[in-house]
Prior knowledge:
3-stranded antiparallel sheet, 2 helices, 6% strand, elongated, binds zinc ion
Amino acid sequence: MTMxxxxxxxPPPGPEEESVCxxxxxxxxxxxxxxxxxxxxxxxxxxxxxxxxxxVMGIRDYRGYWVGHGAQxxxxxxxxxxxxxxxxxxxxxxxxx
Length: 97
Ligand SMILES: [Zn+2]
């Protein structure tokens, strides 16, 4: 990030719309809207979409911690019976892997 002192219009930091969780690949929730995080909490990994999610290292840390603790669902009732972690993480956009 560069600090610009010049005339202040900076585009928002994120995508117009993004429904895939950057941490776990869950795809049923709107995590980014109009370039900003929605603060939605992922029912799967429990990550809250947030400005911190602009850091791929932060995303990887959280994912490593989550998987290291057994990839537990934050909202277990929403977990599909045939849920497959590896299938889901294949949804993670390449730039957040
Ligand atoms: Zn997630």
